[in-house]
Each structure stands twice: as C-alpha cells, then as structure tokens.
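Worked example 4.2. Below are the chains of a multi-component assembly; read each line carefully before continuing.
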Amino acid sequence: MDQHRQSETHQRRSIGARKNPNTEAAILDAALKLLLAKGGKGLSMDAVAREAKAGKATIYRWWPTRGALLLGVYARIKGAHVHADTGCIETDIAAFFEHVFEFWQKDAGRVFALIIAEAQSDLDVAEALAAYRSERINDWMTVFERAKERGELRDTVDCKLAADTIIATAWHHLLTNRLDVKGSDLARTLAYGVVKS
Amino acid sequence: MDQHRQSETHQRRSIGARKNPNTEAAILDAALKLLLAKGGKGLSMDAVAREAKAGKATIYRWWPTRGALLLGVYARIKGAHVHADTGCIETDIAAFFEHVFEFWQKDAGRVFALIIAEAQSDLDVAEALAAYRSERINDWMTVFERAKERGELRDTVDCKLAADTIIATAWHHLLTNRLDVKGSDLARTLAYGVVKS
DNA sequence: TACCTAACGAGACGAACCGTTCATATACAA
DNA sequence: TTGTATATGAACGGTTCGTCTCGTTAGGTA
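Applying the procedure described above to all four chains together yields the following structure tokens:
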C-alpha cells in the first residue's frame, strides 16, 4: 500500500511536536560527508537533503542558512578547549599550537576554514564567529595575566593583543593549509619577539 | 533592421581577434560595483554580465572562475607595496600596518577578504593567493635580514617565521573586520614579544 | 478519549545562477 | 577579395535556492 512504501524505503519520521535527534544527526552527518567528499562547493541544501533523506523544509527550519549548517557541523565535532598550565608561557603556547593543529588536521580544519570564509559574506556567521573568537581570546587573556602575575612577562605587555596574535597565527596557518609546522617554533617567535632584549 | 538593433542599445562589440580593453574594464568595474553594493553573494557571473552588458562567454574566456574574477578585480585596484626603511624595525612594522589598513579600509579590503574566502574552496585561487603571499613574505624577510645585519635583532630569530606572523596579524584584522587599530600597538607586541627580556 | 499543535518526508514551484553552445561580427593574412 | 581565427552576445539545459503545500506521525492538553 502507499502508506507503507515510505516506511519500507526508510523509517525516519516525525516523532511528534519536537525535534527528532535522528534527523538532526542524519543531516549534520550528511553535510560533513558532502563537505569532505566534494569540498565547500559540494555542500548545497539540496544535496544535503538528498543525502540525508530529509525534507528541505526540515533543514531550513533548524539551520536557516548555509552558514548556520556549517556552524552546526563544527559544533558537533568540536571538543572542549583545554589550556595547558605548565608554568611557562612559551611551552603553554607551543602545547596549544600542537593540540589545535592536530585537531584541525582531522576533518575539523576544513569545516572551520569554511566558517571563516562564509563569515566574509554572511553577517550572522560573522557574528557567531566573533562571539566564538571572543571566548578564545578571553581564555588566553587569563593565561597571560596569570603569567604576568608570576612575573614571567614584561609589565607593558597588552594581554589582549598578545592573545589576539596567537589566534591570528593559528587561523593563518589553517587558512594557508600549513598545519604541519612545529608549535614550538611559533611559540618562540611569539614569546620573545624579534628585537634584541 | 535586426542587424542594427543591438548597435542601437549599446555599442561595444568584437574588435576582431584580440581582447577588447573596453570590455575588460566594463566587466571588472561591474564586478567591483556589485561586490560593494550587494556583498560577496551579489557577485554572480550572470549579474556581472548584465551589469557590464557583456556576454557570459566573454567573462568565462578571461576569468574562468569566480575566483579568477576576484583576483582580476583586486589586481586592478591594487597599488605597489612599498616598505618603509626607517632604520628601526618596530617603526617599519607600524608603518606597514598603518598603510595596509588604510588601503584595505577603502574597497580593497572587502575584495581581498573575499579572495581569502574563495581560496578555501577553489584550488586555483588558493595557489594564486599562496604565490602572492609568498612575495609579501619575501619582502618582509629582506627587511628582517637587513635589521639583523645591523644588529637590531636577536641572532636566533627566524626571519621567515617573523614575516609570517606580520602577515598573519594583518589578515586576521581584515577577516575579523578590525582595521581601526593602531599599527604601533601591533608593532610593539610583534617586536618585543611577551616574555621579560 | 478527542482535539490541537508541531515535526517530518516528499516534492512542486518560480527565480536565479551555472557553464556551455551556437551564430555572428570583426580583424588580419594570403 | 577571400579565408581563417578570435571575440562577442544571446540562448539553452541543468542545478540550486528558498518557499510552499500536502499527507502522515506523535506528543501535549483539555
């Protein structure tokens, strides 16, 4: 019968007046799969709907733009940021680069790079990215202020600018596809600068 | 008559077996105009063709992808890079940031940001951007090596990494829409790092 | 229980965009 | 003058976009 046909092809259906977590998972999985298989331009709403066997209205309901979908994918695969506290700011920075570059070398890097790209032409993504970036800056500011309190840093250091430079370096290596550098080299440059004492 | 109709609506036509410079100018102007008026997503090949009153085949012949068109627009409005040589690396860096941020605050910044974005999903643009970036890195490496020779820098400084950090900082401020910072503040952080002597 | 509301898959719809094809117009060479 | 090569613009089929409708499912509420 007709009412059985769809149940035979695939089972996922409405589970009532609430979001179906299976549907959400299927859509985000499909988006990530397409993204990795066909690159950023392979991620179209139509293709995701086909791949996930979902209705387009369902996708647009939860992720109204392509950028929102990208943010959803990244949130799904992202773990919590943990900052090492080795008592030495240089090794803290080095550990951060090693950790984030390794994480980005799996699928997450391509997703995050596309989010930065999308932010250049989608104001909502830009705002979400700015908020996320602000959190990361604050994380690093506390690390720097801790280091300053224990007398490791020069008193004139602007902690916010220092934090910003670290994030800038990380993003830059992601965007230019150079995630294979040694974190310790980057850390040395950022910790000591260039000018002789 | 039919063969006169098109000549009446607009005059630009083939000038034989060579590129029509008027057409090139009209297309690049149209692309820039759309880009500034409607943002990155307003720049479609169709819209450019309409705005420039040109055939799409003409556009695709000279700029086979959207990214190539972006590169063409940027090349058209970009001036030559000149590096100050004040004898002090910190003020050289500060002058660079002031100069490039001012340049980017006019239309060029939006164009270059979109090129970086496009490079995340277009391999050709990524290669062109890498080549361009490589030139800028080399510029800065010579500046740093000059400073090292006159004894201004620590001997252990990696000039390439230092150059990379400057470009990273500039890009980051562009991508996060913060071109209104003081170049001297950025220069101080990059020149002296954070760690006490 | 009976009704209301909301999520879901499917796909139709017009608009816009993509990349290509084709016919024509022009310059240059033989 | 005639032939060839290239630039140019209009048109075409296919894809994507974002919205909408439809029938179905199931939780929440009275």
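Take a moment to check your reading of the output against the notes. Chain B touches chain A through 52 residues (CB under 8 Å). The radius of gyration of chain B is 21 Å.
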